[in-house]
Amino acid sequence: MIIKGSTYINGEIVKRYIGIEEGxxxxxxxxxxTNEDVFEWxxxxxxxxxxxxxxxxxxxxxxxxxxxxxxxSAVHGGITTVVDMPxxxxxxNNLKRLREKIKQCSKKACIDFGLYALLSSDVERMMDxxxxxxxxxxxxxxxPGRGDLKEEAKLVFDSGGLVAFHxxxxxxxxxxxxxxxxxxxxxxxxxxxxAIKSLKEWPEGRKHVCHVSTERxxxxxxxxxxxxxxxxxxxxxxxEVMLGPFGKVNPPLRGDxxxxxxxxxxxxxxxxxxxxxxxxxxxxxxxxSFLEAPAGIPGVETIYPxxxxxxxxxxxxxxxxxxxxxxxxxEILGIKKGEIKEGYYxxxxxxxxxxxxxxxxNRLHYKCGWTPYEGFRCIFPRHVISKADFVIxxxxxxxxxxxxxxxx
Length: 408
Ligand code: DOR
Ligand code: ZN
Ligand code: ZN
Description:
Layout: E1 2-9, E2 12-21, E3 24-29, E4 38-47, E5 49-54, H1 67-76, E6 79-84, H2 95-108, E7 112-115, E8 117-118, H3 123-126, E9 132-136, H4 150-158, E10 162-166, H5 180-186, H6 189-197, E11 206-209, H7 215-223, E12 227-230, H8 232-236, H9 256-267, E13 273-274, H10 283-286, H11 303-312, H12 318-333, E14 348-351, E15 356-358, E16 377-379, E17 383-386, E18 389-393, E19 396-397
Parallel strand pairs: 1-4, 5-6, 6-7, 8-9, 9-10, 10-11, 11-12, 12-13
Antiparallel strand pairs: 1-2, 2-3, 4-14, 14-17, 15-16, 17-18, 18-19
The structure holds (4S)-2,6-dioxohexahydropyrimidine-4-carboxylic acid (DOR) and zinc ion (2 copies).
């Protein structure tokens, strides 16, 4: 297959022919002579995205999402690689469960995927199957908090693996909040900052700080040499938003100062990646009282389209967005994706900046059926290519269940 169009290469948009063979990019050229059919695209050709932080609820809560609907949603939003978290029911904290999860998810995934394992005493055996581990420093949905796994982390670090941390310090929590402002007071900024500071007591290695929600947290994480992740919900909302329990998430939505600071640091290139932290809960779970509602916000299908709109509106540079959603996550994971370059996987998202539209929950593919971004302007990709195959063509899914591979 050959694709021709305005292509994103090293921060610039240039006219190129992209040759694709056996799943990979075989050439990127200014001009070619060929008798083959060339697919011409009139918009921009970008790398497809990698979302390093999703909760697809499989196994455990497939009423909320499963690995098919999760990956189907991802690909509609231009994401062709996801890494799923281990706070399943039961949690993915031993080799048997990890192997079972790989097997089951392989049957359902439409796109490539990786899996975090929950760091535990079974770490050495799990390292046969993954190099990605997760630590919840405070309890969150489906996972108790653990700060006592330093020896286990050392084993991961010594083998070059990555440990991703959910950073909240439980000893800093206050009394339960009854609304979003109260929830921010319950799990305050200090709790995030204290947890991130404590990472210096952990062994040296590749540390990744998930969903940083405060400016101080971000600065401390960077000073420790960790990679830093920001979510769309912390960028697009503050605790002033009228979402009630639908905006309840860990760490909580913060105030204006942190919110604007995150945008600034993002634009300055001081954040490594964006990830959705797609954490779906059913509307019926969320409409219980605020206190009872589970924390978590869906977002895997809208992360790239929202950021493309920010580019179109001049709020963010295109290269910043591609770095955050494509290039850096792939680099951190050590996979040949996220750049349009010979030898890299042919994972591409074809957008047209003229095609903006409001987000509507009934046009998304989540099982949970809602989005906090209802009515937000965004730009979805018209076509998405995953390892040389069209998986989205003209906005419709043309891939298949089970086509995605476990890649770590
Ligand atoms: O709000 C959250 N929801 N934060 C987490 O850490 C877990 C997630 C979930 O799985 O629902
Ligand atoms: Zn988390
Ligand atoms: Zn999460």
